[in-house]
Design brief:
This protein is mainly beta and 575 residues long. It folds into six domains: 3-123, SRCR-like domain (Mac-2 Binding Protein); 126-223, SRCR-like domain (Mac-2 Binding Protein, Roll), CATH 3.10.250.10; 227-326, SRCR-like domain (Mac-2 Binding Protein, Roll); 329-427, Mac-2 Binding Protein (Roll); 431-529, SRCR-like domain (Mac-2 Binding Protein); 532-568, no CATH class. Strands 29, 30, 31, 32, 33, 34 and 35 form a seven-stranded mixed beta sheet that branches. The longest helix is centred in the middle third of the chain and has 11 residues, at 258-268. The chain is globular and about 80 Å long.
């Protein structure tokens, strides 16, 4: 047996413990270097094959550094003096310490390492506070303390380095006079003198020349985002490209799904994900393929925080570049498929005047959001008054457009509207139950790309069924059925490998593969929802309400007896 395997076997009995201490060694500063772990009677490093950006984010947080910037491999910071930690760290990125991440023994993964390939990483030493990930008040790490920067000591070159270090795009604006709010603690005591080409603020020269500043002079920066959509006709649709080490590159479509797309749309402020596209739908890109095998939970603030193979590691060519279509329209103040209509104009969400919105416009909005047909158009701020701008043009959709972006608009025909006239919309939802005898039981069908299709029953369970029942407002899930219990469907099988947590508001927000499956219609999934609920008590006690059409109705006590109670709940529970 060679020494590489011996090292792994010697350390394979190590368990994850809350006593772990982490430091970054050989990086020249405490926020960059080799990942070293200290435990009682043991010291070692982490194998570079088991390390990703989510784990790096946890270490940066644990050390009081900024965002995780990069994960480095092949002993970039030199070999470690100890054994290799034998556990794959399974972090979701939100943990406060590395010890609270899960672990899996390396022997399960059938991968081995030796002490010459420990993981390395770089955390930022600058952060933006009070805005978004790529905009906010500039704070620089000095020792253990985050300090704000005086607007008189900060120029264009300094700002360019900040944007570069955070993996954001080009500098958009430098703002003084505490534009993102006043900070706390110290104001940086020196003047930065960046040339503008440094990779990190740490490498910029500084001068003892300084101004008499307070937090009223805190400087802010607005950078472009680090992800973009290209060749899709708008900034909210196209081929996914990410910025890394100053260069734009693409994303491989292996395992690319709606959760991944949702993170991109959220990061860009583009509403909901409408579709996750593969096979270079928007044309092949060029340059590096930065990311592959992306696995987002859907809650991440940026794509780079999702699990992946690691920067630049892939098994793709540009014929598999991933793409995304985001909505560019959203419904606010209601449910997934109802609410106040807001349209994205540039970087701003604007409400729409009820006098400028008709049935054809409503059909496009419902279609774009995957929400079936319009049920009702409501004026007079039925879902509450919005904020900011009111859309200044009249939409003139024909009704057959796939997105509101493609609708003609008229700047000459417009009304003098305020938020009192904000229009609202109720659409039918993007999922239905068919051939079960009621709208709350049957074969599961979902609307995607304007066509109804079925769901593969592989792995279909009660958590998945619960999401469908909630989306349809049908009460609790009673049964999750597969093998075409309600008969085989026809047309496309849209969704495979569904894996819901049970708390999602819509089936399309669950982990799944769209358009990829190993089923035929003999495996179509089905659901039975209760159509009755108990309100105002616990799960098994409360006021009886029965679903009648779209409305929940109470039941008169004179019309309800012991047999009705037993039919509602076979258990002998008090109602």
């Amino acid at each position: 047996m060679d020494s590489c395997v011996v090292l792994i076997l010697l350390s394979s009995t190590i368990t994850l413990t809350t006593a772990d201490t982490v430091q970054l060694g050989q990086g020249g500063r405490r926020c960059a270097g080799r990942v070293d772990i200290f435990r009682k009677d043991w010291f070692g490093t982490v194998c570079d094959g088991f390390w990703d950006m989510k784990a790096a984010a946890v270490v940066c947080r644990q050390l009081g550094c900024g965002d995780a910037l990069d994960v480095l491999s092949a002993a970039q910071f030199g070999p470690g003096p100890g054994a290799i930690d034998a556990y794959t760290r399974i972090c979701n990125g939100s943990e406060s310490t590395l010890s609270t991440c899960g672990g899996r023994n390396v022997e399960t993964d059938k991968r081995v390492c030796d002490y010459t390939t420990p993981a390395g990483m770089i955390c930022s030493e600058v952060r933006l506070v009070g805005g978004s990930r790529c905009s906010g008040r500039v704070e620089v790490l000095h020792g253990e303390t985050w300090s704000t920067m005086c607007d008189a000591d900060f120029d264009q070159q300094d700002a360019e380095v900040v944007c570069r270090e955070l993996g954001c795009g080009v500098l958009m604006e430098v703002l003084g006079a505490a534009a993102f709010g006043r900070g706390e603690g110290q104001v940086w005591s020196e003047e930065l003198q960046c040339r503008g080409n440094e990779s990190q603020i740490h490498f910029c020269p500084s001068s003892s020349l300084k101004h008499n500043c307070s937090h009223n002079n805190d400087v802010g920066v607005v950078c472009a985002e680090s992800v973009r959509l290209v060749d899709g006709g708008s900034r909210c649709a196209g081929r996914v490209e990410v910025l890394h080490r100053g260069q734009w590159g693409t994303v491989c479509d292996d395992d690319w799904d709606m959760r991944d797309a949702a993170v991109v749309c959220g990061e860009l402020g583009c509403g909901e994900a409408v579709d996750a596209r593969s096979n270079a739908h928007f044309g092949p890109g060029s340059g590096p393929i930065w990311m592959d095998d992306i696995d987002c939970s859907g809650s991440e603030s940026t794509l780079k925080n999702c699990r992946s193979r690691g920067w630049g590691k892939h098994k793709c060519d540009h014929s598999k570049d991933a793409g995304v279509i985001c909505s560019g329209v959203r419904l606010v103040g209601g449910s997934h498929c109802s609410g106040r209509v807001e349209v994205l104009h540039g970087d701003t969400w604007s409400t729409v005047c009820d006098a400028d919105f008709d049935q054809q416009d409503a059909e496009v909005v419902c279609r774009e959001l995957g929400c079936g047909l319009p049920v009702e158009v409501l004026g007079e701020a039925a879902f509450g008054r919005g904020e900011g701008q009111v859309w200044s043009e009249e939409l003139q959709c024909r009704g057959n457009e796939s997105q509101i972006y493609f609708c003609p608009k008229s700047s000459s025909l417009k009304h003098n509207c305020s938020h009192v006239s904000d229009v609202g919309l109720v659409c039918s939802v993007g999922v239905r139950l068919v051939d079960g005898g009621s709208r709350c039981a049957g074969r599961v069908e979902v609307l995607h790309r304007g066509q109804w299709g079925t769901v593969c029953g592989h792995g279909w369970d009660m958590s998945d069924a619960a999401v469908v029942c909630r989306e349809l407002n049908c009460g609790d899930a009673i049964d999750a059925l597969s093998d075409a219990h309600f008969g085989p469907g026809s047309g496309p099988i849209w969704v495979g490998d569904v894996d819901c947590r049970g708390s999602e508001s819509a089936l399309k927000k669950c982990q799944s593969t769209w358009g990829k499956h190993t089923c035929d219609h003999s495996k179509d999934a089905g659901v039975i929802c209760s159509g009755v609920r108990l309100v105002g008590g616990s799960h098994c006690s409360g006021r009886v309400e029965v679903l009648h059409g779209e409305t929940w109705s109470t039941v008169c006590d004179a019309d309800f007896d012991q047999q009705d109670d037993e039919n509602k709940n076979d258990d002998e529970m008090l109602i």
